[in-house]
């Protein structure tokens, strides 16, 4: 059950990957221009060496803002969609890593490839809380990103490659488990929302004649887009009388397709694991 919850939630509700800037490097993509050239070169060399020695693709991405996405898209959803859009990591191994910095929102995210599962999240949280956030909070992006990339390698990537057991994480409370189960149920219902909605409406008695002879036809008013729900309308008529009514309904936001090897990366994908922080 736990595995199903994790797999489902990492995909449910994610925004379409369209609109992300294409990566210009497989190591450092400093779109926000936070790093001096010597530091960017040092980090890039470190990540290139990691790739050459272990095959792990790790990249740093800095953006001024994610304001172009809908408000419903969370940092975690944004990072997962960006990861999958770029295709970070080897397609067959899925052990890539993304360090994402959003300046305007003052948010930071370590996004892990699908191979890490959720078991390495606590180590990612340690790096975020102990290394990244303290430096970024002081607007020392240079030190924070430099030390953060080193810590991710030494505390997550290297132990993972060496076969170290991930930390035990049985801290999920009963209420958290209930919430996850309800989220899965709600998502599953959402997949069939249109058919279920029409079936339920058709089962009702006509408010005018009382007979159960309602017909429903649907029309899209506004298609769903990047993290933004759409809107449709149901036209309800009765075959036994002249009853006619219209009701609006919500179309769930789009999900991304799996990455097809974007940019200079190997076509890897995320499993939604990692850790986030605000500075």
**Alpha-carbon distance between the termini?**
34 Å
Number of strands: 8
Q: Any idea of the CATH class of the largest domain?
A: Alpha Beta
Number of helices: 7
Order of helices and strands: HEHEHEEHHHHEEEE
Shape: elongated
Number of domains: 2
Can you give the helix content as a percent range?
25-40%
Sheet/helix structural class: alpha/beta
Whole-number mean pLDDT = 81
Q: Write down the CATH topology of the largest domain.
A: Diaminopimelate Epimerase, Chain A, domain 1
Strand content: 15-25%
> How is the main sheet built?
5 strands, mixed
Unreliable stretches, pLDDT < 50, 5 or more residues?
1-18, 169-176, 254-263
Tell me the CATH architecture of the largest domain: Roll
Radius of gyration, in Å, reads 23 Å
Strands across the major sheet, in which order?
1-2-3-4-8
Domain TPM: 28-154
Protein name: TPM domain-containing protein
Pfam families: TPM_phosphatase
Signal peptide: 1-17
Provide a compact summary of the structure.
This protein is of the alpha/beta class. Helices cover 38% and strands 20% of the residues. The chain has 2 domains: 187 residues, Diaminopimelate Epimerase, Chain A, domain 1; 59 residues.
Write the layout of secondary structure elements.
Elements: H1 2-11, E1 28-30, H2 37-54, E2 58-63, H3 75-86, E3 97-102, E4 107-113, H4 121-137, H5 141-161, H6 174-191, H7 193-203, E5 214-222, E6 230-238, E7 244-251, E8 270-278
Parallel strand pairs: 1-2, 2-3
Antiparallel strand pairs: 3-4, 4-8, 5-6, 6-7
Comma- or semicolon-separated keywords:
alpha/beta; Diaminopimelate Epimerase, Chain A, domain 1; 2 domains; 3-stranded antiparallel beta sheet; 7 helices; 38% helix
């Amino acid at each position: 059950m736990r595995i199903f919850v994790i797999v489902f939630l990492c995909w449910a509700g994610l925004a379409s990957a369209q609109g992300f800037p294409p990566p210009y490097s497989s190591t450092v993509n400093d779109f926000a221009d936070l790093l001096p050239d010597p530091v960017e070169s040092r980090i890039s060399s470190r990540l290139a060496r990691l790739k050459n020695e272990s095959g792990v693709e790790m990249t740093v991405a800095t953006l001024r803002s994610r304001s172009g996405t809908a408000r419903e898209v969370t940092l975690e959803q944004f990072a997962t969609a960006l990861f999958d859009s770029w295709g970070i990591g080897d397609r067959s191994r899925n052990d890539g890593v993304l360090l994402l910095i959003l300046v305007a929102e003052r948010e930071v995210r370590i996004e892990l490839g699908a191979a890490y599962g959720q078991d390495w999240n606590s180590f990612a949280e340690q790096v975020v809380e102990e290394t990244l956030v303290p430096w970024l909070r002081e607007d020392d992006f240079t030190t924070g990103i430099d030390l953060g990339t080193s810590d991710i390698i030494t505390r997550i990537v290297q132990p993972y490659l060496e076969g170290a057991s991930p930390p035990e994480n049985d801290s999920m409370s009963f209420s958290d488990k209930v919430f996850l189960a309800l989220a899965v149920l709600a998502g599953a219902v959402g997949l069939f929302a249109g058919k279920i909605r029409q079936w339920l409406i058709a089962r009702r008695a006509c408010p005018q004649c009382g007979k159960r002879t309602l017909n429903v036809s649907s029309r899209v008013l506004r298609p769903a887009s990047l993290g933004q729900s759409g809107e449709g309308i149901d036209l309800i008529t009765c075959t036994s009388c002249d009853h006619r009514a219209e009701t609006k309904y919500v179309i769930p936001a789009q999900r991304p397709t799996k990455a097809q090897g974007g940019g200079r990366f190997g076509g890897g994908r995320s499993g939604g694991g990692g850790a986030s922080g605000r500075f």
